[in-house]
Design a protein that fits this description.
With 386 residues, this protein is mainly α. It is built from 14 helices and three strands.
């Protein structure tokens, strides 16, 4: 119902929500959404537990220290919650002035991965920037900056052609040049989600859908490894020692968990059987150790988080706040759905992390900044909509 009401309001004039004065903003302050905060704390702590659980073998094998991954993840969790706290107090209206420079900066970072000496190439893909003791994945930063940019871009009305150009440009860099089709899909779906919430004509959806399908097929056809992923999706056990190895091992893990799971720490597939076990595939270890019921509870928590985010969007006191909250929620929700769907073979495997759970500093930091902004929005909601 929350999502239905949110999209129903798109039929009204973009000027329906007046920009509040500073006095009105502070007069409208509500209590911070403690339920949303509690959900994120739970997911992040559970993520720490699962990263430690899933990474011990690989960390000891590769670095001689079974705590290697968890120590890094703890650092990013602490930094992320510091950023969450800052942005929960930082008035979200000020983000409008930062929208363009932040977007351009993140676009620059996205291109810098191709600069020799700065970019890090792994598995034939350029997706990381070398940092002091750690690597940065710019695609996670541009997801956040684009939500802020498009929320500001649409606050006074729809501008279709510039929007389509920018989305196509960024998606092309991510999908074609960086060879990250999963993140490109998240980016495009998030951007068009904001576009629809902002009041884009529904008749355009058909044309964009056809264009998106054609683009997806083209991306698949030009890369042999993507064709193999499609084949592995259609038959996960067609080549269990070859191109369908990854998904077959994930499904074995989920099947081994049964209804109640093998118990915490008892996963067998985490011992070098599942590729990317701490990042994109961490849900397979969750399913193996906590079973179907445990996995269902986790999915329920993520779903409730998404609903709380849409509720904040519905109560926003201005267009920018509404589009911003909706965009952040759509981004995190789409990313979670794509990751989970790939893990249960409802769609081809993609390199998309599970928000708040998967190992990775750039993604976790960006996710927690998004939550901080949502919390700030919840404090400045319209009392008439509470």
């Amino acid at each position: 119902m929350i999502v239905k009401r949110l999209f129903a309001s798109r039929k009204l004039s973009p000027k329906r929500l007046p920009q509040p004065t500073t006095h009105q903003v502070f007069a409208q302050k509500q209590k911070v959404d403690l339920v949303l905060l509690g959900l994120v704390v739970f997911l992040s702590l559970f993520g720490l537990l699962m990263v430690y659980d899933a990474s011990q073998f690989e960390a000891f094998r590769d670095f001689g220290d079974k705590y290697y991954y968890i120590k890094q993840q703890v650092f990013w969790v602490v930094l992320g919650f510091g950023a969450l706290g800052f942005f929960s107090f930082f008035d979200y209206h000020r983000l409008q002035k930062l929208a363009i420079p932040f977007f351009l900066f993140s676009l620059l970072l996205l291109l810098m991965v191709f600069v020799p000496g700065l970019g890090v190439k792994a598995g034939g893909a350029h997706r990381w920037l070398r940092g002091p003791g750690f690597n940065i994945q710019p695609v996670e930063i541009i997801k956040l900056s684009s939500v802020i940019f498009f929320a500001s871009f649409f606050k006074k009305g729809i501008k279709s052609l510039p929007f389509i150009f920018l989305v196509g440009l960024v998606a092309g860099i991510i999908g074609l040049l960086q060879k990250d089709l999963g993140s490109a899909a998240v980016y495009v779906l998030t951007s068009f989600g904001i576009y629809l919430v902002a009041g884009a004509p529904l008749w355009q959806l058909g044309g964009f859908l056809v264009t998106g399908i054609v683009g997806f097929i083209s991306f698949v056809l030009i890369a042999p490894y993507r064709r193999q992923r499609i084949l592995a999706f259609l038959d996960p056990f067609t080549d269990p020692q070859g191109f369908s190895y990854h998904i077959s091992q994930v499904l074995i893990a989920l099947g081994s968990g049964g209804l109640f799971g093998l118990g915490i720490g008892q996963s067998r597939q985490k011992f070098a059987y599942i590729p990317e076990v701490t990042t994109d595939s961490i849900f397979s270890v969750i399913g193996e150790e906590f079973g179907f019921l445990g996995s269902l509870i986790l999915i329920g928590v993520i779903t409730y988080f998404i609903l709380r985010g849409f509720k904040i969007a519905e109560r926003a006191s201005d267009n920018f706040g509404k589009f911003l909250a909706a965009g952040l929620t759509i981004w995190l929700g789409v990313q979670a759905v794509i990751n989970l769907a790939a893990m249960v073979a409802l769609m081809p495997l993609t390199g998309v992390p599970l928000p708040f759970i998967s190992y990775g500093g750039s993604a976790l930091l960006a996710n927690l900044v998004a939550v901080g902004i949502l919390l700030n929005l919840s404090k400045q909601s319209d009392p008439a909509k509470t």
